[in-house]
Each structure stands twice: as C-alpha cells, then as structure tokens.
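User
Take a look at the entry that follows and flag anything odd:
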Amino acid sequence: MAGIIPVRDIMSTKVRTAKTESTMMEVVRKMNKFDVGSIVILDSAARPVGIVTERDVLRKIVEPQLPPDSVKALQVMSAPLVTINADAGVEQAAKLMSKKRIKKLPVVDGGKLVGIVTSMDIMRSQPKLISELSDLICRIILLRKNDAVS
C-alpha cells in the first residue's frame, strides 16, 4: 500500500469526550475550555456512541431555548456515530466525510476511540489534492465565462 497515508498519521489524539449522562452545560463548558467545536460522547463502557457539535448546540439547545443544565448529552448528540479505523487511508476518510456530510470523524482501533480527524487535517495532509481541485475549479469557471460570452 505504498503512497497511502493512514488516518493515524494525521489524526489528533487529544479527543475531548463526555459521558452520555453529562449535561449540555458541562459539554459546552468543555468545548469552550479546550476551544474545540465538538465533543465525542462515550457510553458507560467508554465506547464512542455519538458526537455533539456546535451545530447540535445551536439547533437543539439554543434555538428551542432549552435549559442546558437540564438536557443530557444523550438527548443532543448526533448518532449513530460515524467512525473510521485508524489504519484506513486518508482518501477513504475524505470520501466517507463527503458522503456523510460531516467535518469531524472519530478514529477507532479495536472499538476504542484513539483520535479524531477533521476536514482541515485532511486538507493539510493532502496539499496536492487541494492544488488539483483549485485548478479544476478555475478551469470550470473559465469555461462558464467563455460559454456566457459566446
């Protein structure tokens, strides 16, 4: 598998977590304390079962004006949790994230949470792909401009 970069090489190992029974106030405080946009939610056996993102907080707590100290993470988390194996390739992770329309992908090894990979991690690890996509977008824009002029 020469040339394939495994997810474990680009993931962050400092994953912030909370329990399913944590209140949303606790989850938000942790997000603010560590300046992160998501918290992976663990069940009582420390298995990852969901994720709470900033968007979840806005849609499920702020907009309906629910008291964050009386709502549990279990009620707000996005589940089932989409994960990827630590040995999977970065390209596979990017395709999964695109298909599922997610920006944060928890990484597991043997069912245990070992890291998290974000869309920014993938972009930083694959600058050649960004360059190629940028060139393609520029060509499409030029073609559309030429078609509009014609």
Notes: The chain has a mean pLDDT of 89.
